[in-house]
Amino acid sequence: MNETYDVIVLGTGLTECVLSGIMSVEGKKVLHMDRNDYYGGASASLNITQLFQHFNTKGDANAKFGHNRDWCVDLIPKFLMANGQLVKMLIFTDVTKYLEFKSVMGSYVFKDGKIHKVPSTGGEALKSDLMKFGEKRRCKKFLTYVSDVDDGEKKAVERFDLNKLTAKELFANFKLSPGTIDFIGHAMALHRDDDYLATPSLDSVNKINLYINSVARYGNSPYIYPLYGLGDLPQAFARLSAVYGGTYMLHKPVDKIVYDSNGRVIGVQSEGEVAKCKMVIGDPSYFSDKVEKKGQIIRCICILKHPIANTNNAESCQIIIPQKQVNRKSDIYVLVISYAHHVAPSPFFIAIVSTTVETSNPQAEIQPALKLLGDIEEKFISIDDMYVPNNDSSKDGCFITSTYDATSHFETTVDDICRVYQQATGEDLIRKLEQSKKIKDSQSNEKK
């Protein structure tokens, strides 16, 4: 402990572990601490006995659901976009050698009281039961245009100035109906509310193309998920950090963060010892005086004995319920996994419902999603506060991550990783990874 580090990282959530791993690879001296004796922090993965204990649920978990070794339940589950930035981080850092992924079988959206498969190409749009015939043709033209922009087709690129044209105006140019805009904006571009409609459309076009390109990787959906759950993801980055000299300490209490007379961090005290550092990165639970509450998230983990109706018996899938479909301000997410990803024994499924709390009765808010699940063997409900940093990191040297949101994918988590990295180093992480990939590819070609 009595050493000086470039970075001290507090907490072993995925966000903190990714940042720790990347900074270790870059040659920084990293000390990573967590008050818990397990990886994952608030987003840990639990076996069935631990799940019952975590939620203070009575009953014999093993008698009802079998051996602990067959269960791996994520408290905050999220899918990875197959072509997304987190996957690129995994590939760049070689963390993939510690993990095995499998594609998710389906991507669905709730519309007019029913579950529908989300189309990802013009051809699928023509076959989709989400729209009437005339609307199918307009949707096909829109998706074809979006793909042409991604391919750099000159006519498509020059057709609109996407940096100025709002998403609402772009949709209007293709005469798309409100229902079509709803599923494209929320189930493909993965916007959490309708604020995006008033912003430049380039961001939405890029997000739709990310969805389309991710589907193209495996064909069933844009999502992948690791076998045995997300629990190994933080550990994989911890191994990466250790390979490059990082030091990990679990079950290590943090007494206080130490500052100099100007209020800038100079170390972290634990059990009477102080580890000195140039900066601290950590989750909000370590910085109660530097964060503010920004609402709440309700999550409901449900154990089922059957697939979700109208999902083609999918062993894994995502269902998004857009806000307008249930008269809300934010979307509701349903993530389904099962024995197919080795997180539960056959015939069990794990369905997790999540959304941002909007009323004084959060459990009533998730009822539209719970109705889609059918018979539920057991359910576990949590309501968690969301925190975001409100400090000036340039002055105090404390770089604080945000609480995981309600989305059932990692795209917003990647945004948070990039934000913290930018603030801590002054560099664009995605651009840096892309440049590093080009160098790697060039070196590989030279060897050939």
Tell me about this structure.
This protein has 448 residues and is of the alpha/beta class. Helices cover 35% and strands 24% of the residues. It contains 16 helices and 19 strands. The N and C termini lie far apart (45 Å). The model has no long low-confidence stretch (mean pLDDT 92).
**CATH topological fold name of the largest domain:** FAD/NAD(P)-binding domain
Number of domains: 3
Question: Structural class, from helix and strand content?
Answer: alpha/beta
- Largest sheet descriptor: 7 strands, mixed
Number of helices, counting only DSSP H or I runs of 4 residues or more: 16
CATH architecture of the largest domain: 3-Layer(bba) Sandwich
Shape descriptor reads globular
What labels describe this entry?
alpha/beta; Guanine Nucleotide Dissociation Inhibitor, domain 2; FAD/NAD-bd_sf; Rab GDP-dissociation inhibitor activity; 7-stranded mixed β-sheet; Guanine Nucleotide Dissociation Inhibitor, domain 1; single chain; 448 residues; globular; FAD/NAD(P)-binding domain; GDP_dissociation_inhibitor; Rab GDP dissociation inhibitor
Structure at a glance:
The protein is an alpha/beta fold. It folds into 3 domains: 4-42 and 231-291 and 389-447, FAD/NAD(P)-binding domain (3-Layer(bba) Sandwich); 46-105 and 293-386, Guanine Nucleotide Dissociation Inhibitor, domain 2; 117-218, Guanine Nucleotide Dissociation Inhibitor, domain 1 (Orthogonal Bundle), CATH 1.10.405. It contains 16 helices and 19 strands.
